[in-house]
Amino acid sequence: MSLLIQHDSDAAALRRGTRRFLFIAALATLALIVAIVVRQGMFRQVTSYSFVTDSAQDIAKGQAVRIAGFRVGAVSDVSLKDDGQVVVIMEIDADNMRFVTHDARVELRKEGLVGSPTLEIVPGPDKTRLAAAQARLVFSRADGLSALANQVRDEFVPILRDIKLITGALADPQKGLPGTLAQVRASSEALNALLANGSRQVDGIGRAATKVLGKAEEDLSQLGSTLAAANQRLPALIDRTQQVVDHVEKITAEAETSLPPTLRDGSAVTADVREIVSGAKQAWPIRNLVDAPAPARLKMDSDLRGEAGRAR
Amino acid sequence: MRVNPLFIAALLLAGCAGSPNSANAPANPPRLKAALEAESDGARRYGRGDYAAAARRFDEAARIHASIDDTTGAARNRLHLARSELAQGRAEAALLTLERASGDAGTALDALLLKAQAQLALDRHPAAQQSLAAAHGQCAGACPQAASLHLLQARTALAAKRAPDALAQAEAALKLLQDQDEAAETGNAWRLIAAARLAAGDAVNALPAARAALEIDRRLALPEKIARDWLLIGDIRSGVGAGDTAAAYRRALEVANAAGLDDLARLAKAALAVHDAVPQRGTP
């Protein structure tokens, strides 16, 4: 009896545990579903914009829409209209509507030259007005690799055409490179003849110039010796000239200050010349040659003017 | 003019023979040497007859001597200066100069003789006699200036119309001047003898004396004295009645004009005018 009772209590406990486990699992599953829904933006507020294009190439549903490189939404629908145009609808988070101006445009760009394409909303210059919800924006495609190839082709075709013309002209036997080379050859022959003639003339001139230069060298040698001699004598001459100039200045100064004008011309100059001579006499070694004169003795003359001979 | 290099070399060698800074070599101080050179230069100019320049140099020498307290040198150069001034006819200036030169015993006699000359030139005969008397007192016996003293006394006597006395003094001087190298004084003596003889009425014997004086003055090349000699000869010829009196006066005029002696030229012209105005004996 007691064994049955014990079995019943265990079974009851197992049932309670099972119920608790099922309840918790249900709660976890519900929370997971809520999280997935929130994550998927089921409860997010969005705004739709659209644009029209000729082709749906590189555009797909769920494609990211970016503003300044940040993902702000995605393509929600791509549909073909009756007229063959493609309508593309984008959903943008309401929080990012402030970046979409009324003149904004949508560009299809590629990440790098060959990366995946993305849609980029580029705001317009007028920041004062925002685009209304459901507004249709202008669409453009950025140049891809094929566009670049076409552009290069367009640039290269004229160049290749010009190269063809140039090569054709160069190949012309009369006006082209062969004719020009023939003319150059003829000109070079004439130039050689001219140079040969000039060389002969220069050779003649050179011999004459050599003679002239030889003579000039002799003259310069003589001039050099003359200048050397003059250089030896010039300092003494300059010194003497300077002394004379100094004395002349002294004479002039003294004449201006001390002598009456009537005596300036003669007596002052004479006095200073005498002073010069006296100074020279006192200079060695001339002073050894010149003795001081003895006191002068004038001859007696009791009738200096001859007045005694005749009554005046 | 080319200078012989050997001469220059010899000059330099001679100059180098002495030490540049020889302290033992006897040498005059620079200022004394300058004074002596000025005096020597003045003497040379005086000898050439450039009395004005000579006077400047003597004056310079006298000032330099005075600046070094050399009274003898200063007095000597003042006498030279007075003589130069007398030669220029500036007797008053000469007297002033002589007053500054007095006081030196060595030159006192010369100063008195020059003073007498200046006084005679100014016709101050009594003063000249006093000066000569004082000079005679200092010239005891035979002093070197005795001949000059006699000549000045002769001039004084002649000015006082004492012709015989003048002739005696002049002849005494001439006697003292014999064999002496005093040509100027000898000429002065002959001139005084001629003038004294003329004044005494002995014109005939006066003419050789005047010609003797003229010869000496010509040899000394003294224009003023030559001109005066010709005037004296003219006077003598006029006194003896010779026919070539005017020629003598004209020679005097020519010499005076050539030498720029205006006073003498005027005297010669006046003599010519008097001679032409007076009827000549024996001439048309």
Radius of gyration of chain B, in Å, reads 23 Å
Outline type of chain A: elongated
CATH superfamily of the domain at 141-210 in chain B: Tetratricopeptide repeat domain
User: Total number of β-strand segments of chain B?
Assistant: 0
Give an overview of the whole structure.
The complex is a heterodimer of chains A (312) and B (284). Chain A is an alpha/beta fold. Among the domains of chain A are: 37 residues; 99 residues, no CATH class; 40 residues. Chain A contains 5 helices and 7 strands. The mean pLDDT of chain A is 79. Chain B has 284 residues and is an all-alpha fold. Chain B has 14 helices and no strands. In chain B, 48% of the residues are buried. Chains A and B meet through helix 4 and helix 5 of A and helix 1, helix 2, helix 4, helix 6 and helix 8 of B.
How do the helices and strands line up, and which of them pair or pack?
The complex is a heterodimer of chains A (about 300) and B (about 280).
Chain A: H1 2-39, E1 46-53, E2 64-67, E3 70-80, E4 86-93, E5 105-110, E6 117-122, E7 138-141, H2 145-170, H3 177-257, H4 261-282, H5 286-289
Helix pairs in contact in A: 3-4
Chain B: H1 5-16, H2 30-47, H3 51-67, H4 71-87, H5 91-101, H6 108-121, H7 125-138, H8 146-159, H9 163-177, H10 183-199, H11 203-220, H12 223-240, H13 245-259, H14 262-277
Keyword list:
heterodimer, A: 312 residues, alpha/beta, B: 284 residues, mainly alpha, Serine Threonine Protein Phosphatase 5, Tetratricopeptide repeat, 14 helices, 76% helix, 0% strand, globular
Explain briefly what this protein structure is.
The complex is a heterodimer of chains A (312) and B (284). Chain A is α/β, with parallel strands linked by helices and 312 residues long.
